[in-house]
Amino acid sequence: MSRRSLTAKSLLAALAVPLVLALAACASNASPASTGDADPSKPVKIGVVGAGDPYWATYKEAAAKEGITVDIVDFDSYDQPNPALAAGELDLNQFQHIIYLATYNVKANDTLVPIGATAIYPLGLYSTKYKKVDDIPAGETIAVPNDESNQARALLVLQSAKLIELKDGGSVFSTTADIEPGSKVKVEAVAADFTASSLPDFAGAVVNNDFVTKSGLTPDQLLAQDDPADPTAFPYINIFAARAADAENPTYLKLVKIYQDTKAVQDGVQEAAGGSAVLLKTPVSDLLDSLKKTEDEIRANQ
Questions:
Q1: Half-sphere exposure of 279 toward its Cβ, with a 13 Å CA cutoff?
Q2: Is residue 181 part of a domain?
Q3: Domain containing residue 106
Q4: Interior CA angle at 49 toward 43 and 53, to 5°?
Q5: CB 288 within 8 A of CB 240
Q6: Taking the model in full, what pTM does it have?
């Protein structure tokens, strides 16, 4: 996949997954020191959003066969796993894409890093009231996630569906303030984990993949989505994240490999995603390069 400079124009069509950035005070660049390899007497704690997905049980079983005990720690919102990782309450987390991690690092002055890729997921516009985008009347309201990275991506989805127009064509830094007057619909930002449950109150909602299946949404309720195969999607690769001091931890890297190479796990990920996941084994060096470029771009746009 092409690794392009993350300028606003080059990422005009970019996509993302998962996130809310109400950052906890415990997140800082003073991350706990690494102890080298993981202590085999202690479980490796991995923070996720959506531990109820069956593939996590499959993953734990696969890790156990390799002599690694894994505890999956569930969080109900995206703003929690990074501060918990930074504070040493977790060993790894797996819930976010590169842009979300970069935004967190810049805002929290932290140095969390990707140690392995998982997948890219499309971001979709869903409705329980209308069957097609064209059926949505002018003046109706669409809900989008209120976190920075996913809000921008959601707005680009709505623009591609011709429901809104964004100032200067939009970018990965667009907010609701960039919606041009005269756009067909209104947009309201809500917490990412409430977009699906808020559908009865809106004409539609852009819902992160994590919440599609668990909310009972079905493919026939999908009105529009972005394209995870677009080469500008690189910064939206989902990742395993660790503290910088643990980037070379052999046990943690082995856990990434188990996730990527265990067919039952990969099949479970695909099933949970409704067949929409683009599964990846992107080199870590490329992930780190993308993270740095994205962080630099975010700082330049502050």
A1: 18
A2: yes
A3: 44-121+231-300
A4: 85
A5: no
A6: 0.74
